[in-house]
Every structure is written in structure tokens, then in C-alpha cells.
Amino acid sequence: MVCVTGGSGFIGSWIVRQLLKRGYMVHATVQNLSDPKETDHLEALEGAKDRLKLFQIDVRDYDSMAAAINGCQGVFHLASPCKAVEKDPQVELLDPAVKGTLNALEASRRAQVKRVVLTSSVSCLVPNPKWPPNTVIDEDSWTDIECCKRDKIWYPVSKTLAEKAAWEYANTHKMDVVAIHPSNCLGSLLQPRLNASSGLLLQVLQGSPRKHNLDW
Fold first, then answer.
1. Is 159 among the residues known to form the active site?
2. Cβ–Cβ contacts within 10 Å for residue 139, how many?
3. pTM of the full structure
4. Out of 83, 87, 130, 159, which one is annotated catalytic?
5. What is the CATH number of the domain that holds 17?
6. pLDDT tens string 120-175
7. How many separate domains does the chain show?
8. Which domain holds residue 78?
9. Dihedrals phi, psi of 52, to nearest 5 degrees
10. Is 33 a member of any domain?
11. In a domain, 197, yes or no
């Protein structure tokens, strides 16, 4: 049995699909069980009727996270806000990203999960103005948080703080954690809503004048 937090999103939906295809029992989390745009495409997947259970969670609420993870041997943690900040970046992005990650790890540790796969982001690696030019970016490169704060680019801050918190927690508790760092996520959509990357590409194709960091 495997848990996928953020199961209704672009990456999450594909992970749920692949797990079901391989015969796993899957717990997938969504923000709102009453929203068909979050649930219908998951419930329509092959194998979902018998091997998929959906959970409504708030990533900041440990109990709801633990309910989804209990009984699982593996966890894919994807649930983290990816949106433009409207008022308060601390409340809208930073707290949910960090607290959600720590809640997922704490629940996984208590449930004796064998491995947690954390979907981090390439935005944890760049921008890093201090990185030597013409040098391959590796695990030693971290996004310059202060640079992002100055430019009010809050998503990289949220993902960087969350991943750093995850490694600190994992090292303290000797947990098996893997982090992956996707860039722009494009391709066939299983979910009815555009994900952030596809929305960005659509804006470019439509001639949006705003600056896009597609080179990440």
C-alpha cells in the first residue's frame, strides 16, 4: 500500500495511475473530496474501484495527513502549494510547504514507512548566483533564498525551505528519503485543470508579455 499526497495534480495523477497499473493499493490525498475536478479523473483510472482510496487533507493538519499514511509502506509526498502569492507568502506558501513536509515525514516515521519520495523542485537548485559558471549543478547547489525574497519569488523559497527541513528530519531520524527535482512538467493531462507548467506554456503560446523563467 502506497500513499500519494497531492494525488489530484499533474505529477500526482500520473503516479497514482502507474501505481494502480502495477497492482498497488493506493491512498491518494486531495484538498476537497466534494470537488469532482479533484476526484473524478482519479476514480476513473483503471483499478481505482478496487484499489484506490481518497483522503481529504490539510497539509498543515497532522491528523489528516496521518490518516492517509497509516498502513502504507511507501509515501510519495507531492502536496505543496504552487500558486501566485496574493497577500501573505508565509501563510500561503512557506508554512504549508514546510509544515506539510514535516507532517508527512512524521506520519511516515510513526507508520514505519520504508521509503518516502519527496517531490522537490529544480527551484531548490537555482537561482544560485554564487554557483561557478559553466559548472554542472549538483547536490551542493541550493537556491539563494535571500535573492528570491528580494525579488519576491516565493515558490523557490517554499520548496527550498521544505527540502532542507526534510533532510534535517530524515538525518535525525535515520529515515530512507529520496528527493527528486522536476523542472517544467509538461505532457498529457490526466486532471481537468491546467497545472502551473502547462499554464505557463499556454501563456507563452498566447503571447503573454510577462517574463518567464523557462530556462530553469
1. yes
2. 8
3. 0.89
4. 159
5. 3.40.50.720
6. 999 999 889 989 999 999 889 999 999 999 988 899 999 999 999 999 999 999 99
7. 1
8. 2-205
9. -125, 130
10. yes
11. yes
